[in-house]
Amino acid sequence: MSFAKHSAGGGPDPQSPSTNDLFYERRESVIYANPTAAKPVPGGRRRSTVSSVLTTETIKERQQKAKDQREVRRMCMTAAHKYIIKLVANHIGLDQGAVEEFILDSERHMQLFSSFLDKDGVRSLKFYYQESVMPSIDDCGRTIHGVAKGTVMMRVLVTSGTGDKLRGSCVYFLRTNTDINITSKNMESEIFFGYLDMNQNSGILSAFESVLASVYLPPMKAYSRWGELEESPQGRKTKKHFIDNFDNFLMYLRSAQANSGEGVRLAKNTSEKVNLKEIKTVSDCIPISSNPDIVADMEDLASTWCKQIEQILAESDQMRKEADDTGPLAELEHWRQLMARFNALLEQIKSHECRIVINILNVARSKVLRKWRDLDKRITDNANEAKDNVKFLYTLEKYCEPLYHCDPISMIDCLPGLINAIRMIHSISRYYNTSERMTSLFIKVTNQMVTACKTYINGDGMTRLWEQPRQPLIEKLQHCVSLYKNYQAIFQRTKEKIEATPGEKPFEFSEMYIFGKFETFCRRLDKIISLLNYIESFSSLSDCKIEGMDAFASRFGQIYGSIKKKPYDILDQRKTDFDGDFEDFLRQMRDLEVNIQNFMDVCFQKTPSAFQALQLLNRFEKLNIPRLNVQHKYKAILLQFEQELEDIKKLYTKHKDDPPIVRNVPPISGKIMWVRQLAEKIQEPMMIFAEQTTCMKTDDARRIIKKYNRIAKLLLEYEILYHLAWKDSVDVATRYLQVPVLVRYPQTTSGMLLVNFDPYIFEVIKESEYMIKLNLEIPEAAKVLVHSKDKLKAHFSQMKLLLDEDKDLRMGIPPIFLALLGPSLKRVDSAIRPGLISHTWTSLSLPIYFTQVKEALAELKIIVKQISDIKTTRIDYMLKEISETLLCDLPERNPWGVTEFLQKMEAYTDQMAMDINKMSQVVEDAVKELVRIFLHRAQLEQGMLLESEASTDRSETISVSTKLSSITESDAAPVSEDNDISDEQQIREACDELKEFFNQRLVESLLKATRHSLDVMRRRFFSGGRRSSILHFDENMGGINDGSRMPFFIADITLAIPNVVMQPSLEDIQTALNKATQLVLDISKGVYQWGQDREKQHGTVIHHESRRNSPTMLHGFGQDMHNLIKHIDVPLKHYHKSIVDNKDVSKYVMMMSSALSTLKPEVTDALQRYSDYSFLWKQDRVEAVKEFMVEEPILSEFKAKCLMFKNLENNIDDIQTSEIVGPIELFTDPLKFALRVEIKAWKLMFGKELNQQYRAKMEGVLNFVDDYTKRLARPIRDLEDVREAMSALNDIRENQIALDMQLGPIEESYAMLNDFEVVVKKEETDMVDSLRYSFQKLLTSAVLPWCVLGIEARMVEDSLVLTLSGTIER
């Protein structure tokens, strides 16, 4: 069952179909049920016959026409049709195309479909999906493969709901507004639809009930925007009444569906001997009753009916098994079902078939009739009883409905009517007024009340008991108890009225049965109320912040948690486990109360003061826990308070002259605050005691009150006394404002300025502020001071800030600039001077004075910043760069050769000279800029600048003025006005000193760079460490030694027969070092002194560069360059002499000039290690080979020689590629190459001798093989030939072993020639390779002739015998 809503409108209100529509649907239904019938046509006419149709058109034409009509219907499909078809397909589980094809099967389907979408069309549309007869192609215009005409299959039918009976599933669509056409745009807001499935429900009523219960009812209950119905009690009652009626309607549908299935069908006549439908009257029964077989069949049928009726009666008389919570409406439902069952049975008994059977048996006087009449009477009585009971119970329905839908408060109002209705039934009813039934009815009413109370308490089952707020829950429980009391009271009043009314049947019912369950339930509720009250009282423990109470809160939580975790329903009065658990809960809570009381006593013993004890008692009192005995504690604390009064009095007496004051609080206010604090210590507890009227009526309380009043009066007098004394001292502070704002401190020689502001002024202001906070009166003068507080603070802060700024500026001026900034400093002094004389703290001109001082300081600050920036960025930075510049280029990872080192050093030093000279010029320009600024400030810029430049040109030596060195920090003081030397003369002298100072710093930077560069070179040469960077070095280390020996130079070890030498030699390397040192020193020649012509310096640089170039390059510059060189022949002054004459530099130069003197022994030892190979070039190779060959060496001796040379070569290969000796890395590759050449020459001479010796042996073997091969190849003709062949074979056998022993040494000797690196001709190599093969071939040819020669010898012998025999015979 599903439902989807497309509008927010009301429920379905389908329009009733017209008579014509109903006629069409019924006619179509008849046609589909009978395929042979003619299909209806518009206008209500029928086709005459099939034969008449065939006379006008053929079958093919009809089919084609049906197909065309189908296509026309398809063309009428719109997007709205498609959307509805999609919804239908989704709900019935078919493809959208299949649903569309079923709808196109009938013109009527499309008419209803389109009418639903058109304006003023039908309001409802249904789509049935159920079994139906498939129409023919003549009717629908299509055929389905495998489905014949008239086949029953599952189809989709479009109907208004009146033509076909629903047997399957249905998708219905409803619309409430027919004033517009339905389109795809407004469809979602104009229609809504639902789904009914008869296959999942037992009937149509069940299907509708399921839709209403699952789709409509939950939203209505959850809906909260009911408009005006929510604004008034009557509206809310109306809404509730509507929802209750809706629930009742659903219950009625369920009941009606259940009652529709209660009927029992009597057995049908299965006898084929008689047709009961053909028997119309009693006279027709007479002849049939004479047939014993028919009568017997009828008796069997009647007996079957009797058994069915007896079963029904037995079931109705059985005791009903009802639940404990069965309500009164269940009684009405029971009798309603019985009435429906008996009425259905009576209708069948009164049917024609049943009467005919009874008449036949009556005519035949069957014995079954007696039993039948008895059962008929019982059925009639039971039916009357059920009808009568239902009639009276219906009067109870409206009084019982509140028991199902209202809360206990509302039920009380309907109880009188309910009791009166039961009283009426008890008085009037014929069947239901028995004591048992009336008691059962009252019990059901009580059951429903108890059930309603449980539902009310649990919030319709949505929340558990422990999850609800406790106070509203207690009220709910009390309402339930009140319902029980009113119920019992109304019952008793009604009972008394009945007893007082004569003739009325009294209420003789068991009240224990009626009220026992409700009374037990109410006793359970009383216990729950008591339990909740305990929980409500002790729940404050969890929020209590008293230290140590968390243990009791935890214990209470455990007790509360144990009762909450019980598995049974606490509202179920039948669960007696709760009673025992409730008693345990009460016992544990009483123990908890005792423990809390003991804890409270311990806490009060630890409180140091009465006020803290009162606060603690107040916190315990807020817990609202019974039996804590709070009033007794108040009396005990009151006695403690009396002792505190005595202590306060003693404390006042001890500290009244010099009380303890809070930090940062002025003295008078501090004393008043102290005395007020004492007063508060006694006042706050007394205010709390005053609220406890019971405690303050005792004699002790009266005594304590008198003591309190005396002490309070004493403290108040102390406060007033000091306040009046302070008011008289305020006038002193106003006189301190009439002094000058500045004063010169006399103890300092420089006359340091101070802010002349008395701190007592701020003290009076602070006292006034605290007096205001303490709600005390202050004089008008104090009010003026408080009002001027911010202004005075601002003036004081501003004056102090200006003095600090002046001091910082003077301290920040370098001593060298003090004399040059004299005029600017005097202007600042002039601006500050009025503060020493005329300006006081009440002067109105102070802001103007501050502005003038600010402007003077700002001007000075600009000048100081300007000269400081120039000094820092253009002078100090450049001098630092010069001092940190590395003046030598040294190898880093790989050592250099001597030539490479000198080339790189020359290029590097030339570049460094140019760079340092440029940096020197930058410093010179910056100094000139400073001089220009100072002269401009002194109004002497133009004249002084020219004179300064002239004096600079005349300067030839560099010295530091003794006057500059005598400048100290004391010069930072203000310049004296009484100075004999004029300002102009001071500026000129200071400018000269400035130039000389920075010139000397340039020389020091050059010295530092040169000294450290030589030190880096020395360290790099001796220690092998790497330098940290290319252009800079570490000022502290000079070089970095990473622990690994890194060589400086590279050299080769070569063989210069008869010695092993190093190239380049140590002398060459020392010369290169000396030249490199001189290059470093010569850098200072390229740094020219200040004040010389820059163009000449540039020309000199070009000249130095051109000297390193070829004359052709110089010639390329032309005549202008020659003139320039001629012009720059005038020598320029530089700093070379100052650098060279320095002692440290000279020391480094001497160290570098003797750097390699200590390396000669190490180098000699390194070269001496290769003397083991000296025999290779010292011994005569020709003589050595001759001596060896004289001894006629065998092959093994040659092999020993070859092995010796191989070992020498291996030893040479094992020699290290390089060896580090001090700062020099010696490479052995040239030496190793020379040794290999010598060894190769030795090997070649021995190899040639070996080749010559074994080539002769090889030629002898080859000659022997060739000779005997030819001798064996001769043909055998006579015995002489045989003897020759035999002789040859004999020689081969004799020489075979000797020859075979020679083959191996020959082959091995030629293989050894490769080791001796002797080149052998290819023909000779081929002879060696074929030597053994030729010898083996000779041996093979020598075996076969032995046999051949034997045979031929016998043949020759036989022929000779025959010849001799013939000769003899003749």
Automatic annotation (TrEMBL):
GO terms for biological process: microtubule-based movement. Residues 957-969 have a biased composition (Polar residues). One of its GO terms (molecular function) is dynein light intermediate chain binding. One of its GO terms (cellular component) is axonemal dynein complex. Residues 297-846 form the Dynein heavy chain tail domain. Residues 1-21, 957-983 are annotated as: Disordered. It comes from the Eukaryota. Residues 1250-1335 form the Dynein axonemal heavy chain 2/5/8 coiled-coil domain. This is Dynein heavy chain 5, axonemal. The lineage of its organism: Eukaryota, Metazoa, Spiralia, Lophotrochozoa, Mollusca.
